[in-house]
Amino acid sequence: MAAAAPTTFSSSSTTSSALSKLLKPPTKVPALSLGFLSSSTPSLNRLRASASQAGASPAGSALSARMVSAPAIKPSVSLDFDTSVFTKEKINLSGHDEYIVKGGRNLFKLLPDAFKGIKQIGVIGWGSQGPAQAQNLRDSLIEAKSDIVVKIGLRKGSRSFAEARAAGFSEENGTLGDIWETVSGSDLVLLLISDAAQADNYEKVFSHMKPNSILGLSHGFLLGHLQSLGLDFPKNVSVIAVCPKGMGPSVRRLYVQGKEINGAGINSSFAVHQDVDGRATDVALGWSVALGSPFTFATTLEQEYKSDIFGERGILLGAVHGIVESLFRRYTENGMSEELAYKNTVECITGIISRTISTKGMLAVYNSLTEDGKKEFEAAYSASYYPCMDILYECYEDVASCSEIRSVVLAGRRFYEGLPAFPMGNIDQTRMWKVGEKVRAARPAGDLGPLYPFTAGVYVALMMAQIEILRKKGHSYSEIINESVIESVDSLNPFMHARGVSFMVDNCSTTARLGSRKWAPRFDYILTQQALVAVDKGVPINRDLISNFLSDPVHGAIDVCAQLRPTVDISVPPDADFVRPELRQSN
């Protein structure tokens, strides 16, 4: 969820011949077989046939055991790295050795060494990530007694100038200015404008960058867009990424809390796509440490955009929206009051389930239930797992093939290029979300809501299905756990508990908002039409699914990550402001 908010720019209509030579098509890599059973593969059809001959249902144990218990695929590239400034540590996640750098304010003194040769960091854009990253970088560098300038670059006439000034940046002291002047004058350019704006303006950004400067991204979206066009980044600049596993307001909120408790913050992944002078890794790690990341793990730009865009449409936002809509209808249709139905869906997921997973893991949710509650959980989990996996697998393939990226780019042009207005309308006017307003207004401070077993079973099934797909597609455990578990329960869900799921869907990044609107109805529909129907028909619980859930190695990996977790929980007041600037102004 690291994408920034929409910013309008005029596209450069021509590309210089020099720039065209730099934008060389990337070398094509042969497609890898990752061992996942697609619904159309001959191997799965043969397995279905054998299960049918054995008298098993299509979702029976023969099929399920094969699909769920297949071994995880190791990442196709090495994610080891070398740093001359920070201490690299090895952790073992379910039998896989991975490397991280722990953060903390005690490391700020190393930032001048990490940023050696950098005199100005240009933060381009003031959306979701821009304000948080600019302020965190500035504050960390001040604490490190560094004279590196953090400068905000905005388009001329942007209404965000006022907000940047209010945060302490100004034209007078050289920390606020025009976007293109900022790009040209910076040694490290953090491109935090919206995904669609990056797609429309990358040529002009590249042409303004100094040779041997460093392009910093907080999302791999631009790489996916370039790949879809057969292009790559210019070869005269380094390209790195630091991707906080949470939205900008979480990055800033936990950093501020970390002033009292060392290490509080949002974990980040980092990637070095190209390194022209050997500085890229230390600069990326310095950037992450300066943001307050408790720990930083390695990935690639390609793996990042696949897991991130996929995650937004899944457990982080889109699927959660679909789940609660489906379950709220079910509970009220079965006679539950609207207020209790809301508590047993939204409040349950964003409150007690998230807090339990955050501190103790998914198994603790199951183990905290009564015997009857465990039976309800198992029925919901068994019925929901494969329907959720069906939609998630399709979504991942749409992201990996760049279909979702093209959809975001085209939507950005529809919304911001003067065509007939097709804005994304709000979703918070239906009955469910009006009930939610009343529930939150009457909610005692600190109330995390009830632990409703059926809702827990559906939600955990979704989380496990998403973990399984990322695992089969070769993502590291660090990336899987941070994208599918930690970002959900430690960043997004606490904000949704404070303001409601609908508020998040209406106010997060454009890429995430588009994805949620597109995929939430798919999850709603398939749960209603398949999972809930199976429960009502009394379809037997798939014991192989439950057994595999209880013994899945991911739980051990989550435990290791939990030990690296800061002791502080994010503090989100009921009036928490994470509205993107242009929405706040228009409203």
UniProtKB/TrEMBL annotation:
Per its record, the protein catalyses: (2R)-2,3-dihydroxy-3-methylbutanoate + NADP(+) = (2S)-2-acetolactate + NADPH + H(+); (2R,3R)-2,3-dihydroxy-3-methylpentanoate + NADP(+) = (S)-2-ethyl-2-hydroxy-3-oxobutanoate + NADPH + H(+)
Q: What is the lineage of its organism?
A: Eukaryota, Viridiplantae, Streptophyta, Embryophyta, Tracheophyta
Q: Give the binding site residues for Mg(2+) 1.
A: D308, E312
Molecular function, one GO term: ketol-acid reductoisomerase activity
Q: Which UniProt keywords apply?
A: Amino-acid biosynthesis, Branched-chain amino acid biosynthesis, Chloroplast, Magnesium, Metal-binding, NADP, Oxidoreductase, Plastid, Transit peptide
Which segments constitute the KARI C-terminal knotted domain?
Answer: 300-446, 447-583
Q: Kindly state what the record says about how the cofactor is bound.
A: Binds 2 magnesium ions per subunit.
Pfam family of the protein (one): KARI_N
Compartments where located: Plastid, Chloroplast
Q: Where does substrate bind?
A: S509
| Keyword Glycoprotein attached | no
Protein name per UniProt: Ketol-acid reductoisomerase
> What are the KARI N-terminal Rossmann domain coordinates in residue numbering?
101-299
The lineage's top-level taxon is Eukaryota
Q: What is its EC number?
A: 1.1.1.86
Which residues are recorded as binding Mg(2+) 2?
A: D308, E483, E487
State how it assembles: Homodimer.
User: Record's family?
Assistant: Belongs to the ketol-acid reductoisomerase family.
Name where it mostly resides: plastid
Cofactor annotation: Mg(2+)
**Naturally occurring in which organism (per UniProt):** Olea europaea subsp. europaea
Question: What pathway or pathways are given for this protein in its record?
Answer: Amino-acid biosynthesis; L-isoleucine biosynthesis; L-isoleucine from 2-oxobutanoate: step 2/4; Amino-acid biosynthesis; L-valine biosynthesis; L-valine from pyruvate: step 2/4
Stretches of the chain forming a coiled coil according to its record? none
